[in-house]
Amino acid sequence: MTPSHEDTLRELPTGDGTLRYHEVGDGPPLLLLHGSGPGVTGWRNYRGNLPALARHFRCLVLEFPGFGVSDPTAENPMVAAPKAVLRFLDGLGLERVDVIGNSMGGFVAVGLAVAHQDLFRRIVTIGGVGRNILSPAPSEGLNQLVEFAEDPTRDNLLRWLRSMVHDPALLTDELVEERWASATDPDTLEASRRIYGRQAMAALQAAQAHSDQPVWAALHKVTAPTLLTWGRDDRVTPLEGALLPMRTMPRAELHVLPDCGHWAMIEQKAAWESAVLAFLTRPEAG
């Protein structure tokens, strides 16, 4: 049975606002962290994957503050996200979970795994972890995000959405309208500017340039088994970004999906679910 938005939505009051999430299934806990971008939510990222994942896991789809579902944050949502994960797991009494992170969610998961090595049993990422080596940075998709944050028109939203997928037929009128309604909500739009406005992007690049150890340089500290999933045709976080984590993360595996852009869990749904479930349900090494 396909889970519904209303039946699965939960609330967790915390000392820094209410966190909202979706809960589906029984079994070991599996935390799902969404990406960023106009109109994104955890539900929209993962709703199609929940029937398969919930047959094996208690799926917990966290909605990050600053994206229009959980209570808003005065911080940059990228800064608020890791703290929200820790509050969420503490509030539910969970000490160790499996985690799937899409794009920004993968970046958040890996950053937490560097700082808290016992937090995650296994990690799955969908693009978003690593560093451009051969191609320009920011990438085409990130530049489209900046354009929308600075000038939130429907045309700019469409340009960004097209950069997310290999097959534009996925961009149905319903999907576009859903994203447009959410992305142009004043609070959500303001949060997008705090992440992807030109000023914010310039500050982020300056901070990375002067950091003693950016996350990509600390990937060797991630001790949990990790499955890196990547669309071969990703134009937001190009496939070359997998080279650094694949080489430096001691227990990393890489699965590349053909004819697939940044939304691997949507565009190659069945193949992605098969690879992820095989990894997450694999017996522990003796």
What do these coordinates show?
- Pfam families: Abhydrolase_1 (PF00561).
- One of its GO terms (molecular function) is hydrolase activity.
- The chain is of the alpha/beta class and 286 residues long.
- The chain has one domain: Alpha/Beta hydrolase fold, catalytic domain (Rossmann fold), CATH 3.40.50.
- It is built from 13 helices and eight strands.
- An eight-stranded mixed beta sheet has the order 1-2-4-3-5-6-7-8, sandwiched between helices.
- A hairpin with a 2-residue loop joins strand 1 (9-14) and strand 2 (17-24).
- Helix 6 packs antiparallel against helix 7 (154-164).
- The protein is globular.
Q: How are the elements arranged and paired?
A:
Layout: H1 5-8, E1 9-14, E2 17-24, E3 29-33, H2 42-46, H3 50-53, E4 58-62, H4 77-91, E5 97-102, H5 104-115, E6 120-126, H6 140-150, H7 154-164, H8 173-183, H9 186-196, H10 198-210, E7 226-231, H11 243-248, E8 252-257, H12 264-267, H13 269-280
Parallel strand pairs: 3-4, 3-5, 5-6, 6-7, 7-8
Antiparallel strand pairs: 1-2, 2-4
InterPro entries: AB_hydrolase_1 (IPR000073), AB_hydrolase_fold (IPR029058)
Domain AB hydrolase-1: 28-267
Keywords: Hydrolase
